[in-house]
UniProtKB/TrEMBL annotation:
GO terms for biological process: defense response to virus. This is CRISPR-associated endoribonuclease Cas6. Gene3D superfamilies: 3.30.70.1900. It comes from Thermobifida halotolerans. Keywords: Antiviral defense, RNA-binding. CDD domains: Cas6_I-like. One of its GO terms (molecular function) is RNA binding. The gene is cas6. Coiled coil: none annotated. InterPro entries: Cas_Cas6_C, CRISPR-assoc_prot_Cas6.
């Protein structure tokens, strides 16, 4: 399940390091407020015997906010999206959002104006075209990969199969990159994340396609990377 959260920023701009850097703390706090043991397990260990954390989100965006070079402008009309393919985790997110009047996104307070569930598209054909709104992060041998690198599609397919194993669904998949955006680099927490937004065609089971829609593509989804439009 995934959710859209309508928010109003209470400051005129957000610090750039907070855009992705604050994401993980926000999402863990929502889970922790409902199930502290689950939040600790996800943070310290992962899910279902794997180091993966089935949590995804898109950091706050503010359509129509005045753009100014070097700043991440906010407004009183913004939104963020988050979700999880695991019902227990998704239920914690929804309950946490339902009881929240305000979210603290790093140094920026966000007033919560409403929460809506977003149903997944129809995936019964076993084929989906996913467009991400944030860069997809992939690594191999401690090196960030970009779509033009040799073996990129295979590494993305490997990541998808790994997610399928964590969720206990069929892992067979084929991936084709249809379009890639420009290289982007963000600071998230204590490190850097490098990637590019993608449009990809994925062949997989309907259950796995639904899960990717709720979770995201690539690595660092709980920091707001690889979120599917």
């Amino acid at each position: 399940m995934r959710f859209r959260v309508d928010v109003a920023a209470l400051t005129p701009q957000m610090e750039w390091p907070d855009v992705h850097g604050a994401a993980r703390g926000v999402i863990y706090d929502l889970v922790r407020g409902q199930d502290s043991a689950l939040a600790t397990e996800l943070h310290d260990i992962g899910w279902n015997g794997t180091p993966l954390r089935p949590l995804g989100l898109c950091p706050p965006v503010f359509p129509g906010a005045p753009r100014k070079k070097g700043t991440y402008a906010t407004s009183n009309r913004g939104m963020l999206r988050l979700g999880s393919p695991v019902p227990r985790i998704a239920a914690c997110l929804l309950a946490g959002l339902g009881g929240a009047n305000e979210l603290r996104w790093g140094r920026t307070p966000l007033r919560v104006n409403g929460v809506q569930m977003e149903a997944p598209p129809e995936h019964s054909s076993g084929v989906a075209v996913f467009e991400t709104v944030s860069p997809v992060v992939l690594k191999h041998d401690d090196r960030f990969l970009l779509p033009e690198d040799t073996g990129y599609e295979e590494r993305l397919a490997h990541n998808i199969r790994h997610k399928a194993d964590a969720l206990g669904v069929a892992s067979e998949t084929e991936v084709e990159v249809l379009k890639a955006g420009h290289r982007r680099m963000f600071r998230a927490g204590k490190g850097l994340r490098i990637g590019a937004p993608l449009t990809v065609r994925v062949h997989a089971s309907p259950a796995l396609l639904d899960a990717l829609y709720d979770w995201g593509l690539g690595l660092a989804n709980n920091q707001g990377f690889g979120w599917v439009k």
